[in-house]
Write a structure and sequence with these properties.
alpha+beta, 158 residues
């Protein structure tokens, strides 16, 4: 994977987040650190490496490759990512990017591959959402905070 990939942290509308004033690292810095540690193959400080995926999308405005770290859920061996955006009103930027171009790169702890992202719907969405929220009930809190339906995205290998 190209380490020069841009790292996404935006407000869901494609606008970059500013650094915080409270001494905490901003989201871009945090994501950069997670991506670097993940790709180095060692521990990812404060996170469970085995539960992380790096998803690289093509920026819908910039055309640049943009990598975002996130947790995933396995559904029959296929990673599914959850576009909760912490319960924000807008979808996360990475989701908007893959809606525009579903061809993505997936990096798991043990492999990397190309995928055509599939947004789940209908009975499949309901089944996977039940599994996700059983395993990670905090997603129910995210859903309660927003009127939008939190998308689930399957990432099968091509």
């Amino acid at each position: 994977m190209a380490d020069e990939s841009a790292i996404e942290a935006d407000d869901g509308e494609g606008e970059r987040m500013d650094a915080t004033d409270d001494g905490q690292p901003d989201q871009l810095q945090f994501n950069a650190q997670v991506i670097e540690q993940f790709r180095a193959g060692g521990e990812v400080q404060g996170l469970h490496r085995e539960r992380l995926v790096l998803l690289t999308t093509t920026g819908r405005r910039s055309g640049e490759q943009i990598t975002a770290p996130m947790m995933f859920h396995l559904d029959g061996g296929v990673p599914v990512v959850i576009a909760s955006n912490m319960g924000a009103l807008a979808h996360p930027g990475w989701f908007l990017n893959l809606e525009a171009d579903p061809e993505v790169t997936v990096e798991l702890p043990d492999k990397a591959y190309r995928s055509r992202a599939v947004v789940l719907d209908g009975a499949e969405y309901d089944r996977v959402w039940a599994d996700v929220t059983r395993d990670s009930p905090f997603f129910l809190e995210h859903q309660a905070q927003t009127p939008r339906r939190i998308p689930l995205v399957s990432l099968p290998a091509l």
